[in-house]
Amino acid sequence: MFELWxxxxxxxxxxxxxxAHSEEYNDxxxxxxxxxxxxxxxxxxxxRIEDPFYDRNELKCSWIEGREWWxxxxxxxxxxxxxxxxxxxxxxxxxxxxxxxxLNGERLGQHANMFREAVFDVSQKLRIGKQNCxxxxxxxxxxxxxxxxxxxxxxxxxxRVFMRKAQFGFGWDWGPRLPTxxxxxxxxxxxxxxxxxxxxxxxxxxxDPDQDLALVGARVxxxxxxxxxxxxxxxxxxxxxxxxxxxxxxxxxEAFPKxxxxxxxxxxRLWWTHDLGKPELYDLQVTLSQExxxxxxxxxxxxxxxxxxxxxxxxxxxxxxxxxFVMNGVPIFAKGADWIPADxxxxxxxxxxxxxxxxxxxxxxxxxxxxxxxxxYEHDVFYDLCDRLGILVWQDFMFACAAxxxxxxxxxAEVEAEAHYQVRRLRSHPCLALWCGNxxxxxxxxxxFWNRPDYPxxxxxxxxxxxxxxxxxxxxxxxxWPGSPYGGSDYNSMDDGDRHDWWVWHxxxxxxxxxxxxxxxxxxxxxxxxxxxxxxxxxxxxxxxAAPVFETLRRNIPxxxxxxxxxxxxxxxKDNPKDKGDNLMLTVTGLPKDLDEYIDFSMIAQxxxxxxxxxxxxxxxxxxxxxxxxxxxxxxxxxxxxxxxxYGFGKAGYFYTQRVYAPVLASCKGLVDGGxxxxxxxxxxxxxxxxxxxxxxxxxxxxxxxxxxxIRVSANTSSMVGRFRAGEISPGADRYLSVSSAKGSFPTNxxxxxxxxxxxxIPVKPEMIVxxxxxxxxxxxxSAPAFAYFVHLLAPHEATRFSDNYLDLEAGEPCxxxxxxxxxxxxxxxxxxxxx
Length: 836
Ligand code: BMA
Prior knowledge:
The protein has 836 residues and is α+β, with helices and mostly antiparallel strands. 16% of the residues lie in helices and 33% in strands. The protein is built from 12 helices and 45 strands. Strands 2-1-3-9-6-7 form a 6-stranded antiparallel sheet, covered by helices on one side. A 6-stranded parallel sheet has the order 28-27-26-25-24-31, covered by helices on one side. Helix 5 (409-426) packs parallel to helix 7. The radius of gyration is 28 Å and the shape is globular. The model has no long low-confidence stretch (mean pLDDT 97). Bound molecules: beta-D-mannopyranose. Beta-D-mannopyranose binds at residues 172-174, 374, 400-401, 439-440, 541, 630.
């Protein structure tokens, strides 16, 4: 009923003057807009603007920000009149952002927060069985920034900090400036009778493995609005093979009573991340009734699991503390990436996009994603999928890279209301691992005001008081952390808390409180080799740029601009200066000569860098207990840190991280004296017993030396299983070390002794044999007579999935890749073979 609206823009103030809020107004010339959605997409659909992502069309959209936008809808309420004790609530789950709402010409009220719902009691105002008219006016966001404010925030597009609105919309170092406007989440009319369920919170208190028992709780928040008589609440938990039910009576007559059911679950089936077990889900049903009449009902998917954040001192690295998640009593290594909104236009992202991206994250062995604070509290489908796929979520509150006006009482009240709303909304998801106050606000503040320790962090009222209070009162189970990064000796410490490593790429040299920040953006300064010097506890951001695949550029960059640093390409790179990536490539591959080289070289630099960093951090387990690299995905077609581009095409970095995130990893650590250590990192909950075959081979294919090492690596540990002194193996530019498993417990790995650009490889043409398995599946066999580097398959359709890609072929060792496209049929000629 609330899906198809009318839309029109006016100069600020002119909509009301024209009577756009009144019932009689004639909106027949207005364009259509779907809800949920936004103004930009409606304008594209109506042909009023061109695709904002193509070329530099973004710049032609700036006028949209300066207009006021009106939505109108005529609707019928097809029901009988309200009975005594009943009410109608009109609920806007998301208004973006400064909206005034009229019903049948009468002003209902205003709303100024994209991140919490707007609720209006329309019981007395709705015309039952007749035509009703809704009108909404969205003000230009910048009109709500007070030019006389005494608060002078720092941060990119700092005016954004005055509004509770997705911050990345005002432009980011990977995102265009396309601030959304409109009704971005569903609208509903709720008919309620006497009392309702405001929220249910499911949590696990204790798991007793000896007795095979779990103690869980379900707290129900109620609202009475037209009764003070007893209410009945029934909580029913049903899982595989069993149902437990508890009935409670609510005698308290207060307006917002709470009741909690504590349930003992025999033989609980625990929720685990997909890499350590199964993400088992139960159904929780809460029913509110009175005198035999059901008044309200809520249904949640829940999981039985405990999750804690261990920050105890690390005995093996004195002076430091762990930062590790403990799931069902097991300390885990978090492997994943940072998540940004999957589209600049956040209102109507298809569920299939979430399914594809999150399945890809799981396929890449990721067990945690961080919802970054400059985007949105994600749509329900995101958390539902993470629950189902067994991926943990680190949830930032939506504040990023800026100073926020915590001196302003109205703004502070919005923040508090938003926090209550979001914590209630998300707290029962088994995937939820952490509430985090913001992205980088403490650490950037400290870098700017490094010699002003007396100057408090603007926004500290939120991160240090309001948010921890709200998470504790509404949730009380999920740990809270004040910021990312936070903790230790400079809010970005290697000794304590989580850390963002921007030494690599941005050239930020590690420091301590009171030290002047120093940067080095030279090729050596931004080199990924610095990861080896990072002794952090949990690395929640680190990464490098890479181009997307050619197909993505073809769709968005005009043919005459398809070269490195063209105006259109640089427009699709939002980081400054535009040649940062060149400094990274210089030490890895050298500079590219053409677009093909740029795509491959930037992908190589990113992929090899992520591999190098993740291998180092995983070897450091448990002293380091997590890597979330920056960033999983994109919100538009862009040159960025992502490993999956806007359409979902995987870059080389995606396939490299899939391999280095394998539950068991064998990796080599080069020593300064030329020696080498061989490590096996075992994230599984059982011992790994295997034989590791180590071979020194020339790129031509000759095996110079080989050894088979029997290994036993205990559950959930990382250990050195072999050490080769300098001289024992003879390094060289014409050779590499290959490390493989006899039993297949880990993916084959390799170690080069010199940078990629110095490798003395034999030019080689790999061979490809493609067989059609069925309409949607191909089987590709690849082989090469000598070592082939960066061998990859490309397909023009983004739903094409490769079991592996961007890999090395060892001489005479064929490799099979399965190719699958669930959406369109595949033919052998769709696949092309490339290598470097
Ligand atoms: C960190 C993030 C983002 C940013 C990224 C790359 O600062 O939190 O704000 O996009 O690095 O610069």
